[in-house]
Amino acid sequence: MIDLYYWTTPNGHKITLFLEETGLPYTLHPINIGKGEQFAPAFLAIAPNNRIPAIVDNAPADGQAPIPLFESGAILLYLAEKTHQFIPADPRGRADVLQWLFWQMGGLGPMAGQNHHFSQYAPEKLPYAIDRYVRETNRLYGVLDKRLADREFIAGDYSIADMASYPWIVPHQKQGQDLDDFPHLKRWFEAIKARPATVRAYARAEAINQQPSVSDDASRRILFGQTAASVQR
């Protein structure tokens, strides 16, 4: 039913977490971003921002043509509405999930991503940039830890807000963070890590790729050296 275009990154894991939780049938299509497969015309037709993940729903609710979709947050919301799972039906509960989904999309993901870039991948180590993003990641961990002080999951019940955030906490050591400093977040993290669907999702990732996407100068140029011409050719 769902074609998932995927690579083994935090944003990719969000979607496999959802699909494994719901049992929604899907076919996984690896897009090796370190080799530039995200710039193939067929993929750009689905994901014009040349980023994974992307999906094609071959059986949309309206019974019409397949629906292509890119952006991990939009995909999670679409799938939650399609299956009526992992998002509340009531307006207040739905709003709570959505604000935390957007928090991850606009805050935790981008800041942790810049943290990874400057501390792990940048050819020149820039202390100011590393410190800036490690500190901001730390602040965001603190926001999440406080949120989880009086509830099991981010919005009460397990939801797409948790699925969006969890993969960005997995590489906490590379982000310069110690989960022991955030006891409520750590409890939440371990609970999600132990879910059978999480185990299955990450096992799929291991079967596809066990190497970092940035492994040499060529992959660094592909991932970090693109301009408008990369998607306009």
From TrEMBL:
Give EC number(s), comma-separated: 2.5.1.18
GST N-terminal domain location, by residue? 1-87
Among InterPro entries, the record links this protein to: Glutathione-S-Trfase_C-like (IPR010987), Glutathione-S-Trfase_C_sf (IPR036282), Glutathione_S-Trfase (IPR040079), Glutathione_S-Trfase_N (IPR004045), GST_C (IPR004046), Thioredoxin-like_sf (IPR036249)
Q: What UniProt keywords apply to this chain's record, in alphabetical order?
A: Transferase
What is the scientific name of the source organism?
Orrella dioscoreae
Q: Which residues form the GST C-terminal domain?
A: 90-215
Q: Which Pfam families match?
A: GST_C, GST_N_2
Q: Where is the signal peptide?
A: none
**Keyword Cytoplasm among UniProt keywords:** no
Q: Which PANTHER family match?
A: DISULFIDE-BOND OXIDOREDUCTASE YFCG (PTHR44051:SF19), GLUTATHIONE S-TRANSFERASE-RELATED (PTHR44051)
Q: Identify a single GO molecular function assigned to this protein.
A: glutathione transferase activity
Q: What class of enzyme is it?
A: transferase
The protein's name: Glutathione S-transferase
